[in-house]
Amino acid sequence: MLKLKPYKEIISYAIAMGLLLLLLRWLEFRFLILEHQYEIYIGIISLLFLLFGIWLSNKVTKPKIKTIVVEKEVRVPIDNFILNETELQQRNISKRELEVLTLMAQGMSNQEIAEQLFVSLNTVKTHSAKLFEKLEVKRRTQAIETAKKLQLLPPTLG
User: Fold this and answer.
1) pLDDT digits (tens, 9 = 90+) for 107-149
2) Which of 66, 72, 101, 136 has its CA 20 to 30 Å from the CA of residue 87?
3) 54 lies in which domain range?
4) pTM of the model
5) Residue 135: Cβ-neighbour burial (10 angstroms; 0-12, 13-18, 19+)
6) In this structure, what CATH number is given to the domain that contains residue 124?
């Protein structure tokens, strides 16, 4: 019985088609024996096939969309942003590292940051690695979120 489960829907369609064919033969027999009007039988048969077609198309074309709800924290922008100097000193973050972090939050790549600050690409990568260590994160997005929580970056930046 477990082997028939994947074919359950196909078998039900086959049974429905068989029943419709039996109904068609029965109507044909009744038409020949009792000599009813031809248009009535065509109307009944077309109505049955119309309803079956609508039902079948709804079954086959129904989208199987799974909705995923993502909850994200939304911060209200603060007009008067005050840099958390104590956190900056505790984590020993230099002014240049803070500049790199700010440019990261603006969505710049390492190459763009290097061009903006007139330093080499390796210098930017070094500053980024030190920032990740000091903020105890592994990715740029985590560094930006952590910096916003610690009030090292304005919440509206990035």
Assistant:
1) 899 999 999 888 999 999 999 999 999 989 999 989 988 888 8
2) 72
3) 8-61
4) 0.50
5) buried
6) 1.10.10.10
